[in-house]
Every structure is written in C-alpha cells, then in structure tokens.
From TrEMBL:
GO terms for molecular function: kinase activity. InterPro entries: CheY-like_superfamily, DED_dom, HATPase_C_sf, HATPase_dom, His_kinase_dom, HisK_dim/P_dom, HisK_dim/P_sf, Sig_transdc_His_kin-like_C. CDD domains: HATPase, HisKA, REC. SMART domains: HATPase_c, HisKA, REC. Its EC number is 2.7.13.3. Keywords: Coiled coil, Kinase, Phosphoprotein, Transferase. The modification 4-aspartylphosphate is found at residue 65. Gene3D superfamilies: 1.10.287.130, 3.40.50.2300, Histidine kinase-like ATPase, C-terminal domain (3.30.565.10). This is histidine kinase. The keyword Ligase does not apply.
Length: 400
C-alpha cells in the first residue's frame, strides 16, 4: 500500500520519508503530521511492501515499526542498511528496554522512538536525523572528492616524474651528442694537420725503401724492406680512416635503395659468415623508398657494423638485420649474438681510438657515427633482453 503526499519533491518538499507499520492508525496519523510539515510521504503496511517502495523511491528516511508480522523490524533494518546505505532509519518500538535500544543502534538505526510518541518529539527526532544524514553524506562526498583529488595528484606526479625522466634522458643524449660532435671536430682539426705532416715523411720513407729494394739481391733484406713498405701502408690506412672519421670526404648523392646496399654488403661478407658458421637473418618488414645519399658512405655504415658483429661471433651465432620505415625515418637494427658490450663502456664506443679489440684502430664506429650524423640521423645501442649487441639506426627519409 502506498500513500503520496500532495507535497512533492519538485515543489517545496523538506525530504522524503517512508513509513512502514502494520498499524493503519499509526500510518495515517504519522502521514498527516509529516505531510503538514512539508515532507513527501510513502507508506507500507509490512516490511516486504516497504522494500518495494524503497527500491522504487529510495527515500531519505524510513520510519520502521519494530514489531511486524512475517518480517520483523530488526530484520528489515539490517536489510535496509545493507541494500540502501543512503537511507537512514528511525525505529518505532513499544518495548523501551535498554537491550533492544542497543541492538537497534548496533544494527544501524539512527534513532528509535517509543510508542505512543509525541508529535513534536517525532518531528524533532526526524529533523535531527535528516540533519545528521545531510552532514554525513556531505562528509562522504568530500572524502570521495578528496580521494579523487589525491588520486589525480598522484597521477599528475607520476606523469611529471615520467616527463622529467624523459627530458633528463633527452638532455643527457643531447649532451652526449654535443660531446661527440666536439670530439669529432677536434679530431678533424688534428687529423687535417697530421695528414699533411705525416704523409710527407711517409712518402719519403716509401721512396727511399723502393730505391733500396731496387739495388738489393739479398732475399732476407728484401723481406725487411717489404715489411717497411707494408707498415707504411698501414700508417697511411690509419690516416685515411682518421680523416674519414673526422670529416666528410668527396661524395656523390644519388637515389639509394638501402635494402640493396644491405644485400650487397652482406654478399661481400658471405665468405666470413660461412667460415664462422654465422646464420644471417633478414627481417625486412617494409622496404623504404629510395633516398638521397652517397652509396659508398651508406655502405661504410654496414661494413663497419658487420665487421664488428662477425668479430664477436667467431664461434658461430646469428647476424640479424631488421629494416623498416615510417613516414619520417628509415629504421635499421643490426644485431649479433656475441658476448655483448658491457654497459659501462657503451658511452665510449663511438669515441675515436676506443676499441676493445687488441688489433683494432678504434675508428670504425667513429666513422659510422660521423656518416649517420651527416644525414641528420641517430645511432645507439639498444637495451633489452636480446643476447649480444643491437645497434639501432634512424635515418630521415627526407632532408640531410
């Protein structure tokens, strides 16, 4: 059974109240009193009907009789507080002992009123409970808002920390690139002067050695002179590499297909990969379009990287070349399954003359870096779980 007050929530209702009582007189009298005070009233003659009213209207307050047939008030109170936590409950009871009062308050009642009750006392109790409800709901809303704001602040802090870390890493990379550029610039000034000063005496040594060779018949002495000439050639080769690492030699731009350059360079190294039982894997996801470059310079990149990889896998392994591109860059990965580069020396590997090989000049990767930077590209060692070393190169498709 349901009775609605003529005063609705859309007008000037002070609140919504459901009265659940099996005594018709209590329902009618209480409804009249509360309607006259401006409340919207719903009524039910038992707890089961009251639950249906609760589901439909979800009133702010329930006036609930303690003694009812089928479902008693205490059972109904517990269900209301569990299912409708925003609905507060005042219990009517004809039994005024302290034990019942404690039981009701533990079960979640906001107050209890002894029958028969005084109308003014009823109104004051209702207004007090509704005030407490408003304060508690507001507090809960503020707490939820606080938690939401704290969560947002925490998320902002995480994003800020991530951005700071990203910017810090970018700054460190930029500083490393500046240092590398300064090293190459210094090397350029040094090597240009050295090339002139060293090659002149080398030419004289070569000339005098050849003159001595032409007047000798002793095989042992001829062998010594050949060794002198070989060492002169080796010094000259170092000087050439030094110049290549520090400045760009003569070049000729043309449309270069980087996949073709990779294939041609791999073919050159086929005898070595076969000799050392090195498997070669090509993972060409997307073939980049041709771009403007000097084919010999691009070939030098892969020559040096493949040489290093093969040196690390003389007991066998896998050389993997990955090729892909997006709208802006060509992406290349050259990976080996060797012993890898210790993390602490990774920042030094592009330094001129730095080498972990006993016979290396330490100029190969410096040359690679100079060429990649010539085309406004980037090169680095990729961190990950993959065994060995993986070099990652990005070259812009347009502009150099």
């Amino acid at each position: 059974m349901r009775m609605e007050s003529p005063v609705t929530e859309s007008t000037a209702s002070k609140g919504t109240i459901l009265i659940v009582d099996d005594e018709r007189v209590i329902l009618d009298l209480t409804s009249i009193v509360l309607r006259n005070r401006g409340y919207t009233i719903y009524t039910a003659g038992d707890a089961i009907s009251g639950m249906r009213e609760l589901e439909e209207y979800q009133p702010q307050l329930v006036l609930l009789d303690y003694m009812m047939p089928v479902v008693d008030g205490l059972t109904a109170l517990k269900e209301i507080r569990q299912r409708f936590p925003d609905t507060y409950v005042i219990v009517f009871t004809g039994k005024g002992n302290e034990e019942i009062a404690v039981e009701l308050m533990k079960a979640g009642a906001s107050d209890y009123i002894l029958k028969p009750f005084n109308n003014q006392d009823l109104i004051e109790r209702i207004e007090n409970v509704l005030r407490i409800r408003a304060v508690e709901l507001k507090n809960r809303e503020l707490l939820e808002e606080r938690e939401r704001l704290l969560s947002e602040i925490e998320e902002w802090n995480r994003q800020l920390e991530a951005r700071v870390l990203e910017k810090t890493e970018a700054l460190q990379r930029a500083q490393q690139e500046i240092v590398q550029s300064e090293k190459l610039a210094s090397l350029g000034y040094l090597s240009a002067g050295m090339a002139h000063e060293i090659r002149n005496p080398l030419n004289s040594i070569t000339l005098f050695a050849q003159l001595l060779k032409s007047g000798l018949d002793d095989p042992e002495r001829l062998e010594y002179i050949d060794k002198i000439l070989k060492e002169v050639d080796r010094i000259d080769d170092i000087m050439r590499k030094l110049l290549d690492a520090s400045k760009r030699p003569r070049f000729q731009l043309s449309e270069v297909r980087i996949d073709k350059v990779i294939e041609a360079t791999l073919e050159v190294f086929k005898p070595q990969t076969t000799l050392y039982h090195i498997a070669v894997r090509r993972e060409f996801t997307r073939i980049p379009p041709p771009f403007q470059a000097d084919s010999a310079e691009i070939e030098q990149i892969f020559t040096n990287l493949f040489l290093n990889a093969i040196h690390e896998m003389k007991e066998g392994g896998t050389l993997t070349v990955e090729l892909d591109h997006d709208d802006r860059d060509i992406l290349i990965r050259v990976a080996d399954t060797g012993k890898g580069i210790p993390k602490e020396i990774v920042p030094k590997i592009f330094d001129p003359f730095f080498s972990t090989k006993s016979s290396g000049s330490g100029l190969g990767l410096a040359v690679v870096l100079r060429i990649v930077k010539t085309y406004n590209g980037r090169i680095g060692v990729e961190e990950g779980d993959r065994p060995g070393t993986t070099f990652v190169i990005r070259l812009p498709l347009v502009g150099s």
